[in-house]
Each structure stands twice: as structure tokens, then as C-alpha cells.
Amino acid sequence: MSTQPQQLVFDLPHRSALELEDFLVSGSNQGAIDLIDGAVSWPNGAALVVGPAGSGKSHLAHVWREKTQAVLLGADVADEATARGAAEAGAVVVEDLDRGIGDEAALFHLLNIARQGKALVLFTSQLPAGDLNIALPDLRSRVCALPVAEIAAPDEALLQAVLVKLFSDRQLGVEPGVISFLMVRMERSMAAANAIVAQVDRLGLAMRRRVTKQLVQKALDSLPKADAGE
């Protein structure tokens, strides 16, 4: 008895659309957009965007980098030399303060440069400033004093639009009924949306199937409970 050969799946890197027009706006993220749009008026030249994983912080930071030609630094690896060099560009994005700060003195120095009007600095974090692990008192007080925009959990309209966009980014056609089916079975979070769409894509390739309610349910059932939002 012959069996049908299994479809080979090539797990290639996926690049999301990250331009300004690709950023979907709702009440949950309008404050963050307003904050980065008003960068020239930031007190002391720096600001902080806070939000959960997958909420759009990196997307917004990317848009701001493109607009300002900012240099990107990871908070956990930045040191005095890289911070000073980045400041010379006039704009800096320091991502993921919640992952730890490699050199607190370097970030304090960067904030001093911003305070002197020589650079703009945009920080991102999953945690509010007060919950960050910062040992240097001067840096802690300076970070806690930054103007902050928090990206809230997405509302229903935004999450629906995000799902459509995520499928479109992967060149997957999806009918409105499938989106509605998914909406009532998933966690209302960007992280869950990203995980589910990626799993639907993988299963669709392996099974040679288009995106249907049945395929979506199979993807939900096959994901770890945390990723599926259950």
C-alpha cells in the first residue's frame, strides 16, 4: 500500500511589514504614536514606550528610526563606547530595558547627552519604569521621570485588523468568517495572534491546505496553551 509523501516545510525567516502605513492605529496605541510624533518636545530629550510582547513597540521604534536615522542599541549590551557613538548620530533607540541593562553608567551618560539637547533617545520596555531592575539611583530616578506611553491590550477591532495583516504579510488569503472564528477562540493579545498565524502558515504548508476554520482549529490545538492564549 502506498502512502502520500509528506510535504516538505521550509521554515524560512518571515519579515513583517514595518513601514508607517503598516502600523494599525486604535485607542490602545494612539498615545504611543502621539509620543514619538512629538519627539522634538520631549522633556530632557528622552521618552519611554511600554507594552507587552508583540504589541508593536519594535514596529514603532523602527518607524521612528527610519524617520530620524536613529541608531539601535540593546539595553543589555550597550556600553560606554557604543552609547557615546550612537549619540553622535543625534537619535538613539534603546530597546528592551526589561531584559536587563548591561552598563547602567553608559545609559545614564546617554541620558545626560539627551538632556543637553545633543540627542533624542527612545526607550522601549515590557515593564513600567518603576518595575525595572535598575541599581544606579540616579539612572532609576531619571528613567522613572521619562514621559511614558503605554500600549494597552488591543481592542477587538484592532486585533481583527492585525490578524488580517499578519495573514497578508505571509501572503495567505483568509475569509472574514475565519477571522471571526479565530477571534472567539484566542487570547486577545498580539503575541497570541503572531503565534497562531505562524502556526497556521506552517500547517498549511505541510498539509497543502488553504486557511479554513478547520485548519485554524488544528493550529490552535497544536500550539502550547500559553502560545494559543488558553
Report on the structure:
This protein is of the alpha/beta class and 230 residues long. The protein has helices at residues 30-37, 57-68, 80-87, 104-115, 137-144, 156-169, 176-183, 190-207, 213-222, 225-228; strands spanning 46-50, 71-74, 91-95, 120-125, 148-150. Helix 6 (156-169) runs parallel beside helix 8 and helix 8 packs across helix 9. The protein starts with 29 loop residues before the first helix and ends with a helix.
Descriptors for this entry?
single chain; 230 residues; alpha/beta; 44% helix; disordered N terminus
Q: DSSP helix count? A: 10
Q: Tell how many strands the DSSP assignment holds.
A: 5
**Biggest β-sheet, characterized?**
5 strands, parallel
Radius of gyration: 20 Å
Residue-averaged pLDDT, rounded?
Answer: 85
Regions with pLDDT < 50 over 5+ consecutive residues? Answer: 1-18
Q: How would you describe the shape?
A: elongated
* Termini Cα gap: 40 Å
- Structure class: alpha/beta
Main sheet: strand order: 2-3-4-1-5
Task: Give me the oligomer status.
Answer: single chain
Question: What is the N-to-C succession of helices and strands?
Answer: HEHEHEHEHEHHHHH
Fraction in beta strands? 5-15%
Estimated helix fraction: 40-55%
